[in-house]
Amino acid sequence: MSPQSEHVAATLRSLGATGRVHTFDQEVPTAAAAADQLGCDVGAIANSLVFVAGDEPLLVLTSGAHRVDTRYLAQTLALPKIRRADPDQVFAATGQQVGGVAPVGHPAPLRTVVDLWLEKYDQVWAGAGDHLSMFPTSYAELVRLTGGTPAQVTP
């Protein structure tokens, strides 16, 4: 395990998460790659995407089957304009690289939105801090672990 995934694993344990971090033999930097390795539907992969709303980072945990409609999400949550964070902004907000961002284990709490689409899966998989690690969880647990706001991320 990398230092990032070890930190995420420790954070998950401290939060009482039920799943354990799984490390793959090859990188899984995309939802499709992860779903292929896990043998699950791509929609059951919880992508951790970092955006900027106004001047603040916004973490959106979305189903691998969706693209986030930033205009729709900003209107729905009454947020300022949302734009995708660049890799430096992602690292500053999360301490993790794009493609391996976990929903937890960040230097400071992030405002988080959790895609309602993920609720249809009994088990979802989320990144664990690097390109080789993920952990299983449920939708309800993901919302609890992150303190996230359940919301539709696309109309």
TrEMBL record:
<feature type="domain" description="YbaK/aminoacyl-tRNA synthetase-associated">
    <location>
        <begin position="27"/>
        <end position="145"/>
    </location>
</feature>
<protein>
    <submittedName>
        <fullName>Cys-tRNA(Pro) deacylase, prolyl-tRNA editing enzyme YbaK/EbsC</fullName>
    </submittedName>
</protein>
<dbReference type="InterPro" id="IPR036754">
    <property type="entry name" value="YbaK/aa-tRNA-synt-asso_dom_sf"/>
</dbReference>
<dbReference type="Pfam" id="PF04073">
    <property type="entry name" value="tRNA_edit"/>
</dbReference>
<dbReference type="GO" id="GO:0002161">
    <property type="term" value="F:aminoacyl-tRNA deacylase activity"/>
</dbReference>
<dbReference type="InterPro" id="IPR007214">
    <property type="entry name" value="YbaK/aa-tRNA-synth-assoc-dom"/>
</dbReference>
